[in-house]
């Protein structure tokens, strides 16, 4: 615990570093994941293929491997990412986290879509709505209510996964705080206890917020 | 694919892998072990007497540090640190095959000593005051220095003071001493940190950073495996004395290790250990540094 007390500014910096990665990644993953879920249930075969391929590739590869691909292999192949405050590894790291998490978001949202009674979509089509209108105005609003709990788990897992991004050149996030502390002589145990507490400061409020959202949009059936 | 077909493919793959493993094993050469002392007597109750009686010693070293402590396919670590551990053990009457190695990455080195999980740590372990609060050091047995590694065709970076003018991005490992030292020479924004040096080498190869900084001997290992892509700037700008970590306040054991190192320098086993390991990249055998006082 002495590390947390004496090196408090470093923990605060790490807290906001992790929060920043998590916010960017959560927004990106939720958007792309929902889009992919739409792809996977769409009547257009190529879109379904894209959705299936994405989920197959990103859900089944280790995140560390994906980070390696985004941080080193893609730049080698000529893909350049913008830098953030001079750091060339922030956006590759966040992109890998987004692509990885989007696969899980996609599957959660798809399960929600499947939970909407088929009569809803049939009725929407009967009144002349297109596929996009059916999905956007009728099915997704009902589906998203049921997927808040699993999506919450996906997002919280993503916040913790952001620690791996810290090993790929993104400095100033929580997990690298530990390396900085142990280097100046704190024991790993005392340093990591502080890191764990700081993660809880992000994940517990995130869980509470998700619970509040769930209650708010709940439909009594 | 039918189950039988699948099984056949898996089996063939497994055989191929096994074959590869054996082949690489043949290539590794084990440096000659120093002569094992026999019938040595130690003061009763000392660490040396305890270890000699047990006939085994627990050594913490790195498993991923080329030239110093690198675990090969045969499961045994090899390198200069390992050879130093063998020299000390031999003096205790413990043969090399009775040494039990534990992987000790930088972060846990003080903890494993304080928790009595190892008897000594030889793991590119820089002696400094923060660490001396928790453990004691014997040695040093080698003095490294922080240096820079750049691409072979780079002529603008010739030392740490040229980094700023070149607006160079510098890579190191987060939480390491070199990462802290380099902040004196470049802006914080131009420092890129990873968890291992191999990633820094990738970043340098891709042009995502212009220089990699850490102890010269670690860089030498990276240069040796880069197939001519990298070079060492060879202007060490710090002194990093590598010591052997032992339980805090165990002056008798510390003194014994220091005497052993001195003897190994005299009988040539120190230079033999160097030549078999780091010497493959840096042929010049360094002089054994004078030992610090044991405390």
Which characteristics define this entry?
heterodimer, A: 221 residues, mainly alpha, MetI-like fold, 10 helices, 80% helix, globular, B: 295 residues, alpha/beta, D-Maltodextrin-Binding Protein, domain 2, five-stranded mixed β-sheet, 13 strands, 35% helix
CATH architecture of the largest domain in chain B: 3-Layer(aba) Sandwich
CATH class of the largest domain in chain B: Alpha Beta
CATH superfamily of the largest domain in chain B: Periplasmic binding protein-like II
Low-confidence stretches of chain A: none
Which structural class do you get from the secondary structure elements of chain B? Answer: alpha/beta
Average pLDDT, all residues of chain A: 90
The succession of helices and strands of chain A, N to C, reads HHHHHHHHHH
Q: Strand-residue fraction of chain A? A: under 5%
CATH architectural label of the domain at 18-171 in chain A: Orthogonal Bundle
Which whole number gives the mean pLDDT of chain B?
85
Distance between the termini of chain A: 48 Å
Low-confidence sequence ranges of chain B: 14-30
- Structural shape of chain B: globular
Count of helical stretches of chain A = 10
Strand % of chain B is: 15-25%
- Summarize the amount of helix of chain B as a percent range: 25-40%
Superfamily at the CATH H level of the domain at 18-171 in chain A?
MetI-like
């Amino acid at each position: 615990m002495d590390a947390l007390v004496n090196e408090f500014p470093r923990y605060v910096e790490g807290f906001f570093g992790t929060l920043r990665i998590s916010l960017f990644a959560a927004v990106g993953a939720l958007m792309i994941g929902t889009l992919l879920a739409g792809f996977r249930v769409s009547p257009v075969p190529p879109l379904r293929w894209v959705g299936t391929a994405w989920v197959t590739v990103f859900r089944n590869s280790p995140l560390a491997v994906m980070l390696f691909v985004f941080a080193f292999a893609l730049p080698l192949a000529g893909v350049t990412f913008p830098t953030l405050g001079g750091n060339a590894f922030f956006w590759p790291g966040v992109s890998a986290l987004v692509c990885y998490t989007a696969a899980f978001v996609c599957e959660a949202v798809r399960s929600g879509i499947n939970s909407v009674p088929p009569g809803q979509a049939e009725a929407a089509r009967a009144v002349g709505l297109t596929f996009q209108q059916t999905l956007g105005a009728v099915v997704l609003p009902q589906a998203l209510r049921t997927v808040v709990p699993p999506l919450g788990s996906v997002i919280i897992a993503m916040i913790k996964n952001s620690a791996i991004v810290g090993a790929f050149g993104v400095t100033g996030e929580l997990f690298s705080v530990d390396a900085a502390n142990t280097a100046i002589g704190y024991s790993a145990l005392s340093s990591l206890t502080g890191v764990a507490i700081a993660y809880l400061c992000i994940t517990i409020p995130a869980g509470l917020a998700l619970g509040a959202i769930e209650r708010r949009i709940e439909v009594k059936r | 694919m039918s189950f039988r077909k699948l099984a056949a493919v898996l089996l063939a793959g497994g055989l191929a892998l096994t074959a590869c493993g054996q082949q690489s094993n043949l290539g590794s050469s084990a440096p000659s072990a120093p002569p094992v002392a026999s019938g040595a007597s130690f003061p009763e109750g000392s660490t040396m007497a305890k270890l000699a009686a047990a006939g085994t010693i627990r050594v913490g070293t790195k498993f991923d540090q080329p030239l110093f402590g690198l675990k090969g396919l045969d499961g045994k670590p090899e390198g200069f640190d390992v050879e130093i551990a063998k020299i000390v053990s031999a003096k205790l009457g413990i043969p090399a095959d009775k040494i039990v190695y534990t992987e000790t990455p930088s972060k846990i080195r003080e903890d494993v000593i304080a928790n009595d999980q190892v008897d000594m740590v030889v793991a590119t372990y820089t002696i400094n005051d923060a660490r001396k609060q928790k453990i004691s050091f014997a040695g040093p047995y080698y003095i490294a220095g922080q240096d820079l590694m750049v691409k072979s065709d780079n002529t603008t970076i010739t030392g740490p003071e040229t980094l700023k003018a070149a607006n160079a991005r510098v890579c190191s490992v987060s939480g390491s001493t070199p990462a802290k030292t380099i902040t004196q020479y470049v802006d914080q924004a131009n420092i890129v940190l990873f968890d291992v040096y191999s990633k820094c080498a990738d970043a340098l190869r891709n042009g995502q950073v212009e220089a990699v900084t850490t102890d010269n001997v670690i860089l030498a290992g990276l240069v040796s495996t880069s197939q001519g892509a990298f070079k060492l700037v060879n202007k060490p700008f710090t002194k990093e004395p590598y010591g052997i970590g032992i339980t805090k306040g165990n002056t008798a054991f510390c003194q014994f290790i220091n005497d052993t190192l001195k003897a190994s320098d005299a009988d040539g086993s120190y230079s033999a250990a160097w030549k078999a390991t780091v010497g493959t990249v840096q042929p010049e055998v360094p002089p054994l540094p004078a030992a610090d006082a044991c405390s």
